Amino acid sequence: EEQEEDVLRELRLFLRNVTERLSLDRRFKAFTKPVDIEEVPDYMLVIRKPMDLSTLLTNIDEQKYVTVGEFVSDADLIWQNALEYNPDSDPMDRHIRHRACALKDTVRAIIRDELDEDFERVCEEVKESR
Ligand SMILES: CC(=O)c1csc(NC(=O)C2C[NH2+]C2)n1
User: Fold this and answer.
1) Which of 4, 32, 70, 86 has its Cα between 20 and 30 A from that of 120?
2) pLDDT tens-digit map of 12-28
3) Is residue 78 in contact with ligand 1, taking CB distance under 6 Å?
4) What is the ipTM of this complex?
């Protein structure tokens, strides 16, 4: 009903704000757009579920997320994929792994600091009721 739409609207506003802040952070530039298959042809062979910050925004607008937990699961794909695709000791791999770890910690810190647990509980209840 109406109250449920109010909660999901507020969820989308929160998730867009988080995603936009991540997209503006220069450390996360490599994570802002889908990996370009022309530039990185083997990426799709290695990474089964690609994800990036622009796709998170599209998913938010398409109302894919009913809870913050669902959003965090997709956001986690971004840094998990980067760690998987860049396992080597060469400086480029280490550099992107460092940024992937910074993304992981930044997402968790924002959620811990800014998400009211009562609000997430209401979102979970909306999800269960569907
Ligand atoms: C988004 C992402 O994880 C990504 C984009 S390029 C890349 N890695 C490289 O280009 C090479 C450095 N060793 C492979 N990783």
Assistant:
1) 32
2) 999 999 999 999 999 99
3) no
4) 0.96
DSSP letter string, 16-73? HHHHHHHHH-GGGGGGSS---TTTSTTHHHH-SS---HHHHHHHHHTT--SSHHHHHH
Which token pair is 108?
Answer: 């968790």
The number of residues making up the chain comes to 130
Give the tokens for residue 113.
């600091």
35 ligand 1 Cβ < 6 A: yes
What parts of the chain have a pLDDT lower than 50? Answer: none
Pocket lining: 74 vs ligand 1, CB cutoff 6 Å: no
| Token pair for 97 | 């792994």
Expressed in angstroms and rounded, the spacing between residue 82 Cα and the centre of ligand 1 is: 7
